[in-house]
Structure formats: structure tokens, C-alpha cells
Design brief:
The chain is of the alpha/beta class and about 375 residues long. Helix content is about 45%, strand content about 15%. The protein has twelve helices and ten strands.
């Protein structure tokens, strides 16, 4: 059971077109703000949305009413019809009042980066666990942003047990229904987490190796290479949502369980991180964590920092992390580059044998310490 959101201005049967908006604040260099906007465009395409145009404004601080300046907002409003845009996406999180004020000016739906990421996750979730996690994150995100643009939720949800008095406003009925649904999803997720914990206990005698890193770093391709699997691989942000576990062999035929998990990204919505906590526990509980890096990406250093911060937040100790520079077939680097990292190409298989030896050695080192 899901809630649906009415989206004003969407062409019937057509692809949505979005106008993207970024803001460069003093703490964020202009070049980095431009890179963030480029990534927002990749996210839009991952959501099946065409990019109709972009704009970037420098500001000392966000405007409390509109986040951007009033003049800039009017410029965007005038440009939207000419580029056939029916959606405006901001690269930063907006408050409920900012969303409401901007939609009045633009007369189209307004979404922020977190909302766009949540929409991608909603489209991609396949397993019961992932669908439950994503729906919970979406509803917790929507609750404070609920306005009269999003009505008739009770009819769409078909949820029983929620009744409003004769004088109760429809908006309050909708909010009550969302809170009830959120409570039910949290209960369902606790049951799923208990099942996952039982599954973990059943394989505690087998070492586990989790693949983590920035989204689209090639984790699924590497997972396939290490486990001889055929997991879906796409050149898209967040192509993998559902965690996957498969057995594979490392040095001297030693069997381990490899886990492929959801990728990280800058400005990841905190509701999403919280909802995917049980999935990310595959990383926190793993004996070894492969931090997979797309070394061919020009922004790889910033992506490393983002992923490292998430791993730290998850409580993953440095001695359990093995850095893997992937996609080196796209580079021409000296063999001695980055001596602390394993260099591989998951696509061609280069460096995979060396990686397996290093995994086995790291497991032995950890066992000796433990």
C-alpha cells in the first residue's frame, strides 16, 4: 500500500522536464557548487526526468522565504514556459514554507535534492525490505511538507481506522493518516530487522566482506566478479538499492560471504539513512569492508571523503576498511600509484586475484588480533 502524490503540470503520458537550481554560499566554492549541480542533473536523469535548464546563484545566505532571491525566482518563473519545464528541483533542502512559496511563484511542482533522491529510491525498490524502508523515508519527509496540493490521500491509501470529525479539516485527516501509516511501517521494519538478524547469526562462522562506496563506483560489477553472479549492473546513480549476499572464494579457495549494498551520495537525506539502517548494518557487521572508488571519476577525491564520512558515522573502524580503486582500465597511471590501495578493473578482471589475496590477508590479520 502506498500513498500517491498529485503532481501539477505533468504532461499526460510524457516525460517530465525539470529546471535545476543551485546556490553557491560563501562556504561553498563556485566550482564545487557547479559540480553539485552537475550531479543533480545526473540524479534527475536517474529518476527518468529530462533536464530543461539550470541556473546557479551566488548568495551570502539563503533567503528565508524562497531560499533564492525574489528577482531570481521571477526570472525562473518567466523561463519555465519557454523550456516546457513542469518541475523545478533545488540542489539544497527546502523548508516546507519555502516549497509552498516557490510553488506559488512558479505554478509548477518544486522539489529539493532529498525529495528527488527519495523518488529514485521509490522507483528502484524491489524487495519487501527496500520498499518498506523507502516508503517510511518518503512519508517522514512528506509529513511536514503536506499542503493542500497533496489531498485525497485517504481515498488513495484505502487505510481504515482513520476518521475525522465533521469539523476536522482535510489536511489534519491526511496528517493523522500519514502518522498512522508511519507507525505501521516502523513496526513492519522491526519485524524484518529481526529476521535479518537471525539470518546473520546463521552465518557467523563464515567471514563476511561488504562492498561500500559512492554510488555508481562499480560495486555491483565488482560483486559479480567476486561471486560469479549476474546481479543487475547499470551506469546510473543508485542502480542498486537492495542488499545482496553471495558466497565467493578468495585466496586458496577460502569461502566468504560478499555483500553488495546501497551506494552513498553527498547530501543523503537523513530519513533515508535512518530507514536503511538495517541494510547498512551489513556494512557495520562485516569483517572487512571494501571501500570501492571510481578512480576514473574526476570528482573521485570528494566522493572518497563523502563515503568515508558515512563509514565513520556507521562506526566502521579503519582497520576493517580495504580501499579498492576501481575502473583503472580507463586510466594510465604508474604501477606504484596509491600504494595503500588495491587497483582493479571489475569490468576486465585486472587486479582481482591480488584483491582476493589482500582480503584473505586482512581476514587473517583481524583474526590474529581478535
Amino acid at each position: 500500500m502506498t500513498f500517491t502524490i498529485e503532481t501539477p503540470g505533468k504532461p499526460a503520458g510524457g516525460t517530465r522536464r525539470a529546471f535545476l537550481v543551485g546556490v553557491a554560499l560563501p562556504a561553498l566554492p563556485l566550482w564545487l557548487a557547479e559540480e553539485h549541480l552537475d550531479e543533480l542533473a545526473e540524479l534527475a536523469r536517474a529518476a527518468g526526468v529530462e533536464v530543461a535548464g539550470t541556473t546557479l546563484q551566488r548568495r551570502r545566505s539563503p533567503d528565508s522565504r524562497l531560499f533564492i532571491g525574489g528577482g531570481k525566482a521571477e526570472e525562473i518563473a518567466e523561463a519555465l514556459p519557454s523550456v516546457s519545464a513542469d518541475l523545478v528541483v533545488f540542489d539544497d533542502d527546502l523548508s516546507p514554507s519555502q516549497l509552498k512559496n516557490l510553488e506559488k511563484i512558479f505554478s509548477v511542482q518544486v522539489m529539493d535534492r532529498s525529495g528527488l533522491i527519495l523518488e529514485i529510491f521509490h522507483q528502484r525498490a524491489r524487495t519487501r525490505e527496500a520498499r518498506t524502508q523507502v516508503e517510511l523515508a518518503r512519508l517522514e519527509y512528506l509529513l511536514p511538507r503536506l499542503t493542500r496540493l497533496w489531498t485525497h490521500l485517504s481515498r488513495q491509501a484505502g487505510h481504515s481506522g482513520v476518521r475525522g470529525g465533521a469539523g476536522e479539516k482535510q489536511l489534519e485527516v491526511d496528517r493523522r493518516m500519514l502518522r498512522t501509516r508511519i507507525a505501521g511501517l516502523k513496526k513492519d521494519l522491526r519485524k524484518i530487522e529481526r529476521t535479518r538478524e537471525l539470518q546473520r547469526r546463521g552465518r557467523r562462522n563464515v567471514p563476511t566482506v561488504a562492498l561500500a562506496g559512492y554510488t555508481n563506483a562499480g560495486k555491483s560489477t565488482l560483486f559479480n566478479r567476486l561471486t560469479q553472479s549476474d546481479a543487475k549492473v547499470k551506469d546510473l546513480l543508485f542502480a542498486t538499492l537492495d542488499s545482496r549476499l553471495r558466497q565467493g572464494a578468495v585466496a586458496e579457495g577460502r569461502v566468504v560471504v560478499f555483500g553488495d549494498t546501497v551506494g552513498f551520495i553527498r547530501k543523503l537525506p537523513h530519513h533515508l539513512v535512518a530507514s536503511f539502517r538495517s541494510t547498512l548494518e551489513e556494512v557495520t557487521e562485516a569483517d572487512v569492508v571494501l571501500h570501492v572508488i571510481d578512480r576514473s571519476n574526476p570528482r573521485w577525491e570528494e566522493q572518497v571523503q563523502v563515503a568515508a564520512e558515512v563509514l565513520t558515522d556507521l562506526g566502521v573502524e579503519d582497520d576493517r576498511i580495504l580501499t579498492v580503486h576501481n575502473k583503472v582500465d580507463r586510466l594510465s597511471l604508474p604501477a606504484g600509484s596509491f600504494p595503500d590501495a588495491i587497483r582493479v578493473s571489475a569490468r576486465t578482471g585486472a587486479g582481482i586475484d591480488e584483491l582476493k589475496v589482500e582480503i584473505a590477508q586482512r581476514l587473517d590479520d583481524l583474526a590474529a588480533v581478535g
